[in-house]
Every structure is written in C-alpha cells, then in structure tokens.
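Progress note, project year one: complex with flavin mononucleotide.
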Amino acid sequence: MLNERLNWRYATKKMDPSKTVPQDKLDRILEAVRLAPTSSGLQPFEVIVVKNAAIREKLKEAGFGQTQITDSTAVLVFAAWDNYTDARIDGVLALTEKVRGGASETLTGYYDRLKASYVPRDADTNFEHAARQAYIGLGLAMTAAAFEEVDATPMEGFDPAQFDEILGLRARGLKTVAILPVGYRAEEGDWLKGAPKVRRPMNEFVTVVE
Ligand SMILES: Cc1cc2nc3c(=O)[nH]c(=O)nc-3n(C[C@H](O)[C@H](O)[C@H](O)COP(=O)(O)O)c2cc1C
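Model obtained:
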C-alpha cells in the first residue's frame, strides 16, 4: 500500500554514505518527476542530479552544513524557469505538435492566450508560478523514492543564490527552488528515525462539503 510506504519515509537526517542507490531506482524516481503534471503542461522546471563529491561539498556549505547533501548518493536539485518567455511557451507547443502530430488552431490559440497573459507579467510572479510546478515534481520524487524504498530529505534550508552560482544555473535561466538528497538512512545517529509522524488528525485537516 502506498500509504504504508509514506509512513515508512521520513525526512532522513543522517544518511549512510557507504550505501548507494542503484541507478535503476534513481532513473525510476526521475521518470516519476518527468511524468509530473504541470499547469498547461509547461514543465517549467528541470532537475539537476548532482553526484560529484567536490561539488556536493560546496553545496553542503551553501546548505548550512546539512550532511545529507554529501552522505546521499545524489542530490536532486529542482530548478524552476526564472521567467516565462514566448520562446519557452512556443517550445511546449512545438513538442505537443511533434508528439501528437500536426498543428491545430485550438492548440495554437490556447498557447497564444497563455503567452499573452504570462509573458507581460513580472519575472517574480512567473518564477513563483514555475516554482509551484517544481514542487509537484518534488512531491512525486518523494513518493517515488518511498515506493523504491529509497530515503530522501526534502530541503529548503539552503541559500538558493549560492546553489545557482555553484551549478551555473542563472545562465540557463533557472533558479533553485528545493533539493532532495536521495540515499539510505544511517542505522545509528538519526534522532528522527522511527519517530511517529506528527500530523493533524483527519477531522482537523479535511472538510467534507456534502
Ligand atoms: C519543502 C520542504 C523543505 C524542507 N526543508 C528541510 C531542510 O532543509 N532540512 C531538513 O532536515 N528537513 C527539511 N524538511 C523536512 C520537514 O521538516 C519534514 O518533512 C516534516 O517535518 C515532516 O516530517 P517527515 O517528512 O519526516 O514525515 C523540509 C520539508 C519540505 C517538504
């Protein structure tokens, strides 16, 4: 059951650097992120998979020393588009036409309206919208990792500007939103391992309107 896996997962505080996530598991986690639905199908984010040890040392410094950044097998960096542009939205239209075959006036009209409403907005508004889509990917990555019995720690506790600098993201029109080290929990030394989940009860969380 999926919910059993979701109870098993936790924001791992200490990972075991001697254990490595097999590439096929990593690939399936990334495929789940690629399959994430996004608003208008824009997929306005990318994932940078950082395995390089020296770069991860630098990222750890920019991540307030959080050891999962270096003790994991890889750090998935979710980086959103810094803005919407005509070219980016046209790229989505072109891909849709390629995959589904041919141009259609309905489709072109839809993306024309999207460009007219998104492109004139300020870059921050567009980045925030793109970042929300990246979080859908983050959610699916955490779920897929749990399904694969891979540990993962969602993180916002880092300096995004430094991450962008270290990974050269601004030149690619990307800004770091959140990161997810994936690896395996350490047997010893993780104060959170085995702790019960802290969640509000269902009746305080869900309102049913009938
Ligand atoms: C977007 C996001 C950012 C987070 N940032 C950090 C972080 O920087 N470091 C950390 O150790 N945990 C971080 N967490 C973990 C949360 O504290 C944790 O998910 C939450 O308390 C629920 O616990 P659980 O994930 O163990 O079920 C973050 C979680 C999310 C979803």
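Residues 5 and 146 are 6 Å apart (CA to CA).
The chain has a mean pLDDT of 97.
No further modelling is planned for this target in the current period.
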